[in-house]
Amino acid sequence: MSDTPSRPAQTDADTGTPALTVEPAELEWRRDAEDREAPFSARYDDVYFSRHDGREESRFVFLAHNRLAERFGAWQSARPFVVGETGFGTGLNMLLAWACFTDNAPPSARLHLVSTEKHPMTREALARIWQSWPDLAPRAETLIAQWPDAVAGIHRLRLDPRVTLDLHIGDAAESLSALEGQVDAWFLDGFAPAKNPDMWHAGLFHAMASASHGETTFATFTCAGFVRRGLAEAGFSWRKVPGFGRKREMLCGSLASAPDDEARAATPWFTPPATRRAAHIAVIGAGIAGTSMAEALARRGSQVTLIDPKGIAGGASGNPQAALYVKLAAEPNRQSLFYLAALQHAHRWLSTLDPERTFWSDCGLLALAPHERENRRQRRFLDHYGLPPSVVAACNTADASRLAGIAVENDALHYGSAGWVDPGALCRRLADTPNVTLRQASLAGYHAHGDGWQLELSDGDLTVDQIVITAGPASAAWLDGLPLQPIRGQVSMLERDALPALNRVLCAEGYVLPPRHRTLTFGATFHPNDADTAVTEADHRRNLEELARTAPALAEALGDIDPASLDGRAAVRAASPDKTPYAGPLPMAAQWREDYAALAKDARRRFSTPGAHYPGVWVSAAHGSRGMVSAPLCAELIASRIHAEPLPLPRALVDHLHPGRRLIAELIRGQ
Q1: How many CB atoms lie within 10 A of CB 124?
Q2: Per residue in 88-130, pLDDT tens?
Q3: Among 26, 121, 175, 501, which one has the highest count of C-beta atoms within 10 angstroms of its own C-beta?
């Protein structure tokens, strides 16, 4: 948990620690007017779309009355056009909006879809629906292939190079209240107000208004009086227009007056900086944090210069294999919610980047419980999170041994979509993204230059619009005093023609990965405040001892091993004091200490001054030993902020990652 101060007496939704358990949709299957199978909600006793012509009703209500074809055709902004929806359901509205965008938008335009769903369908149910819609089936297949597990939170899906969907699983009002971003057109959908009154309430309308701007429009099929009143009270102007088919009337309109921004009342220091030009961006560091950052920016159209004196993956990201793994707290907190979201995001991201699994594997991972204390902790974890078994499931010793393909001596948690990655291959693939150029040079300094920055490099100067610092331990020189701890770790590698079979990653105090290229990789040592990268026989010995504790049957099958015979690699990672990455704009530390000095006497003091940041300077650092999981989502977060997109995390988790959290914590403690 971050030591950033919390607001008093907050609900779970306010603090960013919602219940993760999600109740899936309860479906019945009926035939529509064209004799296709159509889903019917048993929970709400209502249809998902019109049995007579759901597609045309959706086009009429949501696309036509938001003038999407016209607005898509005229869209010239560098940021994406954003469509928001309350009630994803089958995905019909989003698929139609995507098709409309493809047909009408210029090649440079991008589309960002944001949709909420409290009771998501299963992947199998979606496939059953869309097999009967041949014209929409190809898009539906893309959606279904990335469909997330039923876990509360934001799930980002890349539907095609120009179209992104953020699926917010959870209550619509709570999800949209935590949305960081602005919407251009709303699809106010969902089951009929009489069937689902819990959705259609003032909190939802206010959340929509808070995420809107002066040109935001909306459309909805209903004309219910309390919906009209709620929209008006939230600041929307509405008008009745003829409805579709048998429905006499519907509503459409736009935002007339935006509500006061209350989201930052308690935390003004986290107010995001103004959007700036992002044509050319320098990324300092070419490990996983830097290369994932470069790819995320280049995918959005920025020219990226990737700067690292060691080249691609020259530091801690150069290990031959790394585990895709996180260890979550026994009870949900912001740090664990971030890492859970990051693990799910990493799996979708890698599946899109390398669907053939050439340099990674989602073979699964067993987090072993080597003693009773850890066993109790794992049981508490399962009780508190309520995650579906497809994400994490309890395994007894026999089941864990069966999954591993080798005898283990402990119960375990099985993370089914976790596994391992070849970091160097991944980083090289990311650095090979169009619009990314590697410059193998050292950074000596940078200073403001016009509306951008001039970098002093070992091979000459470079002028850019913005900078992202992703240099691992070397980032400390550029973080304006933010604390960063170096941690040395050494992995060991045993090469043999014949190695015991191992089907899963095994983790306890150490880890061992399934063999690859006739090599078994295991480790890793942990030495805080040590920046030595020399491989030592002593650390090989420690890794062998830990391997024997983690997987004794495997160690016995390997026989006696001389530590001196092992290959290995030592590298230095960086961690923050609270073990959460820094991901966000770089704060001006001296200005923060001056502006918020009164926190030392009154931690509940309210301020109106937004946080001062170095304009166009960003940080993705302190990823520690979990960077293969955390860095891609942090890159997506920062790239989304730079390009004025909705963010892939709720506001509370965005703030939890903000580098300035340390400054506020220090002020409150009087440091």
Answers
A1: 10
A2: 999 999 999 999 999 999 999 999 999 999 999 999 999 999 9
A3: 175
Are 309 and 622 in contact by the 8 Å Cβ rule? The answer is no
One-letter identity of residue 177: S
At residue 52, the pLDDT reads 66
Enter the tokens of residue 83.
């469509």
For residues 68 and 75, give the distance between their C-alpha atoms in angstroms, rounded to a whole number. Answer: 10
Give the Cα separation of 234 and 224 in Å (integer): 16
Tell me how far apart the alpha carbons of residues 321 and 316 are, in angstroms, rounded to a whole number.
Answer: 11
Q: How many residues does the chain have?
A: 671
CB 141 within 8 A of CB 126: no
12: nearest Cα among 24, 23, 21: 21
What's the per-residue H, E or C state across 363-406? CCEEEECCCHHHHHHHHHHHHHHCCCCCCCEEECHHHHHHHHCC
Going by pLDDT thresholds of 50, 70 and 90, the confidence category of residue 306 is very high
pLDDT (tens digit, 9 = 90+) per residue, 500-554?
A: 999 999 999 999 999 999 999 999 999 999 999 999 999 999 999 999 999 999 9
**Cα–Cα dist 311/412, whole Å:** 39
Complete domains list, the chain, with CATH: 12-25+57-255 (3.40.50.150), 276-316+425-483+579-668 (3.50.50.60), 365-416+485-575 (3.30.9.10)
CA 64, CA 252: separation in Å to the nearest integer?
Answer: 10
pLDDT: is 250 or 3 the higher one? 250
Q: What angle do CA 575, 576, 582 make, to 5 degrees?
A: 100
For range 415-420, the mean pLDDT = 97
pTM (predicted TM-score): 0.94
Question: CB atoms < 10 A from the CB of 560, how many?
Answer: 6
Q: What are phi and psi of 456, to 5 degrees?
A: -95, 105
Eight-state DSSP code of residue 317: G
Cβ-based neighbour number of residue 246 at 10 Å: 7
Whether the CB-CB separation of 175 and 210 falls below 8 Å is answered with: no
pLDDT computed for residue 17 by the predictor: 46
Q: What is the pLDDT of residue 19?
A: 63
Buried/exposed 641-664: b ≥16 CB within 10 Å, e otherwise: bbbbbbbbbbbbbbbbbbbbbbbb
How deeply is 487 buried, as exposed, middle or buried, from its count of CB atoms within 10 A (0-12, 13-18, 19+)? buried
Give the CA count within 13 Å in the CB-facing half-sphere of 19.
Answer: 7
- Measured torsion, CA atoms of residues 59, 63, 68, 69, in degrees rounded to the nearest 10: 10
What contacts 240, CB < 8 A, 6 or more positions away? 223, 249, 250, 251
Q: Examine the pLDDT at 13 and tell me if it is beyond 70.
A: no
Could you write out the three-class secondary structure of 176-228?
A: HHCCCCCCCEEECCCCCCCCCCCCCCHHHHHHHHHCCCCCCEEEECCCCHHHH
User: Percentage of the chain with pLDDT > 90?
Assistant: 86
Q: Which DSSP symbol is given to 98?
A: H
Q: Is the pLDDT of residue 163 over 70?
A: yes
Which tens digits make up the pLDDT trace of 239-284? 999 999 878 899 999 999 887 777 788 899 999 999 999 999 999 9
Burial class (CB in 10 A: 0-12, 13-18, 19+), 138: exposed
